Amino acid sequence: xxxxxxxxxALALCLAFPAHADRVRIDTxxxxxxxxxLPETVAVFDMAALDTLAALGVxxxxxxxxxxxxYLDKVAAGAARVGxxxxxxxxxxxxxxxxxxxAGGRSSPRVAxxxxxxxxxxxxxxxxxxxxxxxxxxxxxxxxxxxxDAAATLTxxxxxxxxxxxxxxxxxxxxxxxxxxGGKISAYGADSRFGWLHRALDLPEAHPGLAxxxxxxxxxxxxxxxxxxxxLIVVDRGAAxxxxxxxxxxxxxxxxxxxxxxxxxxxxxxxxxxxxxxAGGGVQSMMSTLDELIAAFAAHDS
Length: 302
Hints:
- The chain is α/β, with parallel strands linked by helices.
- 42% of the residues lie in helices and 17% in strands.
- The chain folds into 2 domains: 6-154, Nitrogenase molybdenum iron protein domain (Rossmann fold, 3-Layer(aba) Sandwich); 171-270, Nitrogenase molybdenum iron protein domain (Rossmann fold).
- Strands 10-9-8-11-12 form a 5-stranded mixed sheet. It has a 3-stranded parallel sheet with strand order 3-6-7. The protein has a two-stranded antiparallel ribbon with strand order 1-2.
- The radius of gyration is 20 Å and the shape is globular.
- Residues 41-301 form the Fe/B12 periplasmic-binding domain.
- It is found in: Cell envelope.
- It holds the Pfam family Peripla_BP_2.
């Protein structure tokens, strides 16, 4: 479904670009768009976009604060702070005078407002088929910034990592993906924001049919015990956003969890949460998560 921001965004793009500018056609979250090629001053309000642009070596002039991801510290250090992921600082943006603003995800509700200031594209990565969306974004950025060879190399590397992870998990049982938020627990199925781990890796769900809620399906320790997964894959929201909340290890330190097959076999995998939760769909984020899963599952090779 096309965003309600698509029409004003398209108009803003047409008015903002000079008629003589070289233009390229790329896919965005709101459909194909013609964009002035090789923008020089770029502000980014989406961490998956910032992750992938950094991997492509694209300079970024404006970033949100905080950005949550230490592996992007070097990129952020040389950029102006232009607000948060949810609230742009329009004065800072006006001072920066960007050629292009890249929004998406948490910042997507601000696309229309941002487009009044500068050409803006919504590069939200949909949760249903995150891998395909991530690959499409790599290709789009490669075209837009004249880095098609680098984009092809990144896509090949991601495909290779997916294949390695698929082989690592094959035949080793099912998994339940949970997110802890202080003392609360949610579960995520194949159609959720973390569901690409099931879909792309052919990793069986321990409990098929979980609702595809953005914030997961609220569950209890009893639910985990009843599902009794072979693997428990854990994302800690508090750790991802730097919150002073109960850590996932403490939350899951429970007799019901301890009795599961996953716990008994030492198959509880605590993923690095910030890349997966904050920059889901960024190429560096995805490859980091895949590396962690490959290592965890390979440790249980028979």
